[in-house]
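Progress report, Aim 2. The chain analyzed during this reporting quarter is listed below.
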Amino acid sequence: MAADSSAIKKLLEKIGEQGLFFKAFVRNLFKPGFEWSEFLRQCYFIGYGTVGIVMLTGFILGFVLTLQSLPTLQQFGAQTFVPAMVSVSVVREIGPVITALICAGKIASGIGAELGSMKVSEQIDAMQVSGANPVQYLVVTRILACLLMIPLLTMVADGMAFLGGFTGINVKGGMSSILYFRKTFGGLSFTDLYPAIIKTFFFGFIIGFVGCYKGFNSNKGTESVGLAANSAVVAASIGIIIVDAVAVQLTSSLVYN
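Predicted structure tokens for the chain:
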């Protein structure tokens, strides 16, 4: 009983710490003196540093999904529906979730390790002593950069998935590029696009917020840097899955019904 109450107490303390960290983020978000140069630098590192693996993953997703679904649909003479099926699957669910999980593994861990090392080496304390605002400079810029870049990276992954699907459908069959992309975009509607885009902003916020929180609250010692990076990946991935599950339920009840 005592162990259960202790675990609940620690959980509530963690939730309270995260709430205070979110409050500090919001408060510094609207303060004057926004660090535009650091924001642009983070956008460059997050976008340019991740776009390669996102493009490769998106292409493979579209390629494999097409190759796996084409034989089944060919049995019913419905192979012409493959482009629309791939586009809807990728845009609605596969593209945003897979891209977010990849970014959680790369970006959240990188932010957690970077800020954790700054915490261990007392650079964050030095910024506070010198009168600088570490939350505004380190946290706000990184979270906003993730908010901007994760949706853009998701769009890149979706586009590469369409290209991978076109490659896959021409491995075992033949379809012109004009017909393929006409069917690909013809299978999509506005109700497929905007729920998927909206949830990528939530994914971006989770990745940036968790990475900054874990790095800022890492303990002293070099071992805590690795722990901050690892825990940031796990927490961000769980948060992405939970948000996606909620978004699917809301989308199914409000949009597709």
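Residues 47 and 152 are 8 Å apart (CA to CA). The longest helix spans residues 36-75. These observations will guide the mutagenesis work planned for the next reporting period.
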